[in-house]
Amino acid sequence: MSCHRHVGAPKRITSAPIEPTASPITVKSPELTRRMMKYLKLIALYKDHECLWHQCHTDFFNLPLREKVWQEIAGKMKKGSDAEQWKNLMYKLRYSVELERIQQQAAKFQPDIDLAPKLQYGDKMQFLNHMFDRKWCKSPFCTKTNLLPIVHST
Q: For residue range 46-91, what is the model confidence (pLDDT) as tens digits?
């Protein structure tokens, strides 16, 4: 059983050059470049496995499969590395992108707020914007059998 995306998007970015985005990556140091490449590779691997992030995916609640997928991602990121390390990094990246989005929303109402520079990997995580879109999927918990009528007592 697999939870790969079923779209025509490329599955790997390790051998292909990074495509330009709306926020170009400026090379300041080799360490920054290596870190950014690591982030982009992790984001691409995470995106490929919808069961890790899409709550309407049939395997989202299949915890053994999700752990196996994280082990696979850890092996692709660095041989012999711990899956928890990559899981925590991905959650940190998601948090940073969400925090940036909230700060941008706040800046619309408070123009005197100075925003931090835009995250260079934020554009690569746009696939998470549809995570809660009910039009995009059907929830595994919303069925006709669990919708019970409300009974009023008098």
A: 999 999 999 889 999 999 999 999 999 999 999 999 999 999 999 9
Q: SS3 for 88?
A: helix
Find the helix packing angle between 30-48 and 63-77, rounded to 10°. 150
- In order of 53, 66, 81, 144, 148, the CA distances from 138 in angstroms are 15, 20, 35, 12, 18
CA–CA gap between residue 122 and residue 40 (Å, rounded)? 10
The pTM score is 0.67
Backbone angles phi, psi at 43, to 5 degrees: -60, -45
Can you give the residue ranges of every domain in the chain?
A: 30-131
